[in-house]
Fold these 3 entries.
Entry 1:
Amino acid sequence: MNTLLELYNMKLQYDRGKANGLAGLVAIILFVLFLYYFDHIYPLLDILGIINIFHSLGLVYEGSVAMTLFRIVGGWIALSIIVGLLGIVLIPLFLLFSVTIEFWGKLFLTTLMVPVYALYIIPWTIEAFQFIANPKKFKEHKRSQKRIKELRYIQGVGKEVPKDEAVERLNRLPMNGDHFFMVGVMYDRNFVILLPCPNRKGELLKVQNLTIKANSIGKIIKLEIPFPNRVQNVWKRDIEFVYDVNDSDTFMQMFRNYSINDCYREFVASQHEFYFRLKRNYTKTITKSEDESERNIARYGLEDLLVGNEEIIEMMRNQKTN
């Protein structure tokens, strides 16, 4: 008897496998037919509005049916995973309600919960489709939206300045009390204060970190220079935007306070010392070196040290010395 039951069970397993295999074979055949007759099916999909939906989700790859189908299949897999996760959450809750609450209460709570979960699941689904359609574009969009409230605040109180123009305006020796700075927005969406610095080429800039935080409705709740203050170097290529905020009373007051603190005074003194020592060394090389290549390097170096307020700073330094 046991042998007959085992044989019968094996027959059932075979029949089930055969049925599943047949279903898979039918699916493959339908997929091939869909590709073959796609030109005839496309108008119908367009009339039904399905093509517009695919376009809005970024799933249509112009000029390639295969890539479009690949994106759709990938999106369908992502959607299936999300729906599965939703089911994992909802089904236990539904079973819990079925034990503890009467039918109408259960129905009411379940109906109430589904839209709430949908508010979380639908955005994830759309983002999954967008990521599959164009990962690079999706990542750039997410980056551009990072700290957008703080960026809009700066845009509202300041004027955007091209980076090269900003470098020219900052190409000066810093001075105690000189508070005409600029605000830089890094590509990683950190904020910095751009400080004056002799740097005509402008590839490496001097900055001070700036903390800006907005609440959920876009109101600025924190605008300050973090302590301890520390001047750092950043590459110009790492800065996305530069803003002139000198018309903002809030920023100007903060810049004034910073321009008289110990950190900025030390920065000013070190920049003066470095600038004039480098200039003396270049001048000495030009007048005394017998190597023409060394003299040429020194001449190019002197050209890069040309700043508009050098004479004023040198006069102030001489007065202190005397």
Entry 2:
Amino acid sequence: MAVLIKNFGNNIEVNTLEELKKVLFDKYMNLSVSLVYTPSLSGIKKVLYVDVSCENHKLVVTNSYSSSPVQLETLFY
């Protein structure tokens, strides 16, 4: 399943977890974005609002509202 990264018209669709991590790191660092995905069980589109940052040269993605870490793997299952 594809994930759509949205940021005020600067949108990119990715198809793999690796591609998602690379695009977030390269193009959306220190920004807040929404991730639109479709869970395979329900088929209904969901939106997750996240903050993208870097810590020790590693990608860190946290929920914009709760500040809890986001497991990007769950967007593809």
Entry 3:
Amino acid sequence: MLEALVAGKPNDLENAARATFATLDDQPAPVRHDQGGTHEPADRYLRVLRASRIIAATDAYAQAVVALLAERGVEATAWQVRVDPALGADQVMALRTTVDGQDALVPLHPHATTLRAFPVDTPVDLTGVAPLAVIDLPTTAAWTDTATAATALAARTG
């Protein structure tokens, strides 16, 4: 699905991210077992399902930011997941680009009011890792649109 959306359609990607975020805590259907009965999914399954939805949503969000940066001539790619404690305990997609002249990973979450850039050779969990840069986003909204994130990043790339 993402491949079809990436080709110059950042709005579609952002809408996909919004739709996925809206379903983060939706409960799956009861599970049927061999004896013909049903039971509720296990807590572990629900945690994994929620985590995968967050990764999928932030991946679509990151792909939208990448597309918007590309329109501005900025090289970036959705890279790998990271846990930025400033964004919570969830793994989110990180964008790889150049920030203030340094190769950096920027974990992206649509509820963020700042972006933090980290060295690319960091562990998945960024607790205790000093950021290379902190970029304030001009928003107080519950959802930071991808255009706002891309504009703020573009101002610091190069």
